[in-house]
Amino acid sequence: MTKSAPKLTEPAPIDIAVICYPGSQATCIHGVTDLFTYADYFARQQSSASRTFVRITHWRPAAADGRLECVFDSRPGPLGRPTVVVVPASQLAPITRGHSPESNTWLVSRHAEGAIVAAVCGGVFVLADSGLLAGRRATTHWMFADELQRRHPELTIEADRLVIDDGDLVTAGGVLAWADMGLSLVERLLGTAVMRATARFMLIDPPGREQRYYSDFTPHLQHGDKAVLAAQHWLQAHAPAPFSIAALAGHAGLGARTFLRRFVKATGLTPSEYHQQLRIARGRELLERTQDPVDRVAAAAGYEDSGGFRRSFKRLVGLSPGEYRRRFQGGRRPQCTAD
């Protein structure tokens, strides 16, 4: 009698669990779900195996006992341990401390089982509240970065970054950064070919953008130091013009050494760094709204040397003036490009 070949067990799919905590953003929840659904399709297309590569589940705190219950399953069946737990963005503003203790407990448990935890925008506050981010690097929406640092001084905030993949913990910046984060995870779990096919289908750039392309310089003005605030107001009104520390300290009514110390404490920047941020902000505005040559933009922003403007712009914004203009001309958000 001929023995039949042993039946091969089908590999378990990658399990993407999305936490639908109170106030989480529906766009993010369903966007991540769609992105991984597309990734599953392209993974099957590129493989000879006819199987499911990705399973997506949604989890919500249960009203009765505080546990999280599964409320959606793209491949119904026995529930296993998730490969990745996604913490979506919040609506408009970051959640308050202790907003969803059930989610925090569930996150810690899944992470202890080996899950990657990936949080987007305001969802980074949920992850930080769980304690898992303590002592680690993180990003969030650039408008929320100061608040995240205030609540969690133990974190190293890198607000210029759109996605920080720190191995077991992944954080993403702006509201729609779930796409960049999702593609990064697809590349890690399913390979570059599947990631690129998914990105092309969704008409979005592959991972590699930076949040600083989008963030405006927002001076910190509510620090309570009236002398420094007077100097900030003067700089804002005369940004393109050169200045001296002595003159700026005079506007603040302080001695130069005292002024420097208090300015850095209040704003987090030296006066020169602050002045340069204001000038680059002026340059960004002109690149978006005019057709002036870069040399003329540099002069209007207070730079005698256009080469110095180009170097400073690239360092602070992450793009050259020409690249920035192509992406943002007319105030538009960046277009999908093949850069």
Task: Summarize the SSE layout with pairings.
Elements: E1 14-19, H1 26-45, E2 54-61, E3 68-73, E4 84-87, H2 101-112, E5 116-120, H3 123-129, E6 137-138, H4 145-151, E7 156-157, E8 163-165, E9 169-172, H5 178-190, H6 192-202, H7 226-237, H8 245-252, H9 256-267, H10 271-289, H11 294-300, H12 306-317, H13 321-328
Parallel strand pairs: 1-2, 1-4, 4-5, 5-9, 6-7
Antiparallel strand pairs: 2-3, 8-9
Textual characterization of the structure:
With 339 residues, the chain is of the alpha/beta class. The protein has two domains: 14-213, Class I glutamine amidotransferase (GATase) domain (Rossmann fold), CATH 3.40.50.880; 226-331, Arc Repressor Mutant, subunit A (Orthogonal Bundle). 44% of the residues lie in helices and 12% in strands. The chain is built from 13 helices and nine strands. It has a seven-stranded mixed beta sheet with strand order 3-2-1-4-5-9-8, sandwiched between helices. The longest helix has 20 residues, at 26-45. Residues 331-339 have low confidence and may be disordered. InterPro entries: Class_I_gatase-like, DJ-1/PfpI, Homeodomain-like_sf, HTH_AraC, HTH_AraC-typ_CS, INH-QAR, Tscrpt_reg_AraC-type_HTH. GO terms for molecular function: DNA-binding transcription factor activity; sequence-specific DNA binding. Keywords: DNA-binding, Transcription, Transcription regulation.
